[in-house]
Amino acid sequence: MIVEMESLTMKTYSFRLFGGYKVILDKTEITIDYAGEKFLFINKSKPRVKTISYDDILRVDYKEAGMTFGYVRLITAENAPYVSSTYVSQHDENAWMVEKDEISLLNEVMDILKKRCKNIQFAQLKA
């Protein structure tokens, strides 16, 4: 689901997996708003919001959903030592998870990131 804000420079994308993520792309930064995950009355993971400047992103690792869930992981100086995987991305605050039917949204987000982040390396990973 795409929600266009009043400003043409800000776009919000919603991804449903693991409680839901909202990815907000602005002119200078990206915000990942994770709703958290609940099972009945037990919180499996807490909600969190992370805002990252495009200048802080060193690399973008992403994997389209297939046999396992897909993900986008923004590599910054703080999480660069850790190898990208589905498990690591699920627990990384600089990442969001993608279902198979959300690949078109993933491609839109990646296109916007590629336009706004000209000197960032993009790595498409295989399962």
If you had to describe this structure to a student in words, what would you say it looks like?
The chain has 127 residues and is of the alpha+beta class. Helices cover 16% and strands 40% of the residues. The protein contains 2 helices and 11 strands. The longest helix is centred in the last third of the chain and has 14 residues.
What is the averaged pLDDT score?
A: 82
Characterize the largest beta sheet: strand count, sense, and whether it forms a barrel.
5 strands, antiparallel
- SS class: alpha+beta
* Overall radius of gyration: 14 Å
**Spans with pLDDT under 50 lasting ≥5 residues?**
none
- Which strand order does the major sheet show? 1-2-3-4-7
Overall morphology: globular
Query: What's the total number of strands?
Result: 11
Strand content: 35-45%
Distance between the termini: 25 Å
How much helix, percentage-wise, in residues? 10-25%
- Tally of helical runs: 2
* Helix and strand run: EEEEEEEEEHEHE
Sequence-ordered SSE layout with sheet pairings:
Blueprint: E1 2-4, E2 11-15, E3 21-25, E4 29-34, E5 37-39, E6 42-45, E7 48-53, E8 59-63, E9 70-75, H1 86-91, E10 95-98, H2 103-116, E11 121-124
Parallel strand pairs: 8-11
Antiparallel strand pairs: 1-2, 2-3, 3-4, 4-7, 5-6, 8-9, 9-10
